[in-house]
Design a protein that fits this description.
Length: 429
């Protein structure tokens, strides 16, 4: 399959059209393998994908659409609201013209969360809700304005992502804490917090690819690094030289590559500092605006070291180190140099990041900390910072038993040796 680039459409739209993907050259032709990887990257993974496929009578093979027809029929069925500015419409049909929002009361939001196993992302074609978003965790896409949640209907843009705690204890609180730190360090402009829905703690995140312009919600285009590099979602943990490849891409496509590579290093270093092993190619994204490409804000970060059944092996090594516990300042600076950064500048940036993180750890609002054993997580992060500053490897302090996740239920599948296993573990009933 190839994607067709139509100059006439581009011209009709004026010069307001961002690049669709770094992996899909214009005017083309696009490479079939990269086209497939890009389109698959718009779909969820794991259980959500299986449920959506079974409802569309679509065949999956090895956790991906079996054929190109299966892929396009899934996108045609669910692609009215995707990551970035994409809307997928079946050939020969028109985009919906009656986009609207339906206000939801607390009970209705709770029903949407409880129904996620059958209605991934909140999808309900009978209600004209057809949405798609990458990732393996259960998620609900809603819009929030006038202080209320709304269903985005008939291709209306969603504004927030709600991620319920499914398998890993306090995962919503953990991600909210880490993303609050990330916001303090200006790694993201958007807010994340925890809301209890149907007695389940859910992480709520504002979408950075949605903005309000003249009172209207507007989509900003983005793609993840797997899409940009032509890598299929099923290979997201198996990208050799991920950091080098991302750097090469930033050099090729961005206007100020040195700044962008430094920003990528800050994201990589932040994940290492907070003990997040899950920095795979779908957890880093690019914003594609008219005529420009930039790194997207950091997202989907939490302290995976909190969970004893995850082995702390990072998706991409830092310097020579593969395990979060072994990373030290030298490894981080080694990685920075491999990324082409000037050692002294990277050293300054790292010291600034560590000192900002230290300050931010002392200034976390109480609503982020209360009601869960946050002090243990703060303690873990604190001692990692201490060791780093003393030139030691950051290590891994065990947390108490309340942090035990999937291992408390031996019937659940064990995570694979590499990468976080949320996708596997969340498949458990
Ligand atoms: N705040 C946000 N704004 C816009 N898009 C986002 C945001 N957070 C996540 N996304 C998009 O949604 C996708 C899925 O989100 P996320 O990575 O949090 O899900 P996940 O299921 O936890 O992923 P994983 O499979 O890595 O565990 C991301 O890959 C990214 O494209
Ligand atoms: Mg993710």
């Amino acid at each position: 399959m190839r994607l067709l680039y139509r100059e006439d459409i581009n011209e009709a739209l004026g010069d307001e059209v961002p690049l669709l993907s770094c992996s899909l050259p214009t005017p083309g032709p696009t490479e079939p393998a990269k086209t497939r990887a890009f389109l698959e990257g718009l779909l969820p993974e794991g259980r959500a994908l299986r449920t959506m496929a079974s409802k569309q009578d679509v065949l999956l093979l090895n956790d991906a659409p079996a054929t190109l027809e299966d892929l396009t029929s899934l996108l045609g069925g669910y692609g009215w609201e995707c990551a970035g500015a994409i809307m997928a419409i079946p050939h020969g049909t028109s985009p919906p013209t009656d986009s609207r929002y339906q206000p939801l009361d607390d009970q209705a939001v709770a029903e949407r969360i409880m129904a996620l196993p059958w209605h991934p992302l909140g999808n309900d074609p009978e209600l004209d809700i057809r949405m798609s978003l990458g990732g393996a965790q259960p998620k609900l896409l809603l819009s929030r304005f006038d202080g209320r949640w709304h269903d985005p209907i008939a291709g209306a843009p969603s504004t927030h992502i709600l991620k319920p705690t499914v398998t890993w204890p306090f995962s919503a609180q953990n991600e909210s804490l880490v993303m609050n730190l990330a916001r303090s360090l200006k790694l993201t402009p958007v807010s994340s917090w925890v809301e209890y829905v149907a007695e389940t703690a859910c992480l709520v995140t504002e979408r950075y690819d949605r903005v309000i312009v003249d009172g209207k919600i507007v989509r900003l285009h983005q793609e993840d690094m797997c899409q940009a590099l032509g890598i299929r979602p099923i290979d997201k943990y198996n990208v050799g030289n991920l950091n080098q490849r991302m750097v090469r891409l930033l050099r090729e496509f961005t206007e100020a590559p040195s700044d962008q590579i430094m920003e990528l290093f800050r994201q990589i270093a932040f994940r290492a500092l907070v003990g997040d092993e899950d920095g795979h190619g779908k957890n880093v994204s690019l914003m594609l605006d008219t005529g420009s490409v930039e790194l997207a804000p950091l997202y989907d970060s939490l302290c995976t070291l909190a969970y004893p059944e995850l082995n702390g092996k990072m998706v991409a090594p830092i310097g020579e180190q593969h395990y979060l516990a072994k990373v030290d300042r030298d490894a981080l600076l080694d990685e920075a140099t491999r990324m082409g950064l000037v050692g002294a500048e990277a050293g300054e940036a790292l010291d600034e990041l560590v000192s900002q993180l230290r300050s931010a750890l002392g200034l976390i609002p109480s609503d982020v900390l209360n009601g869960w054993p946050s002090e243990e997580l703060i303690g873990l992060l604190d001692s990692r910072m201490n060791r780093l500053e003393h030139g030691q490897q950051m290590g891994r302090d065990p947390l108490s038993r309340v942090w035990l996740g999937a291992s408390m239920d031996s019937a659940r599948p064990r995570p694979p040796a590499s990468g976080i296993a949320f996708s596997e573990a969340s498949r458990a009933p």
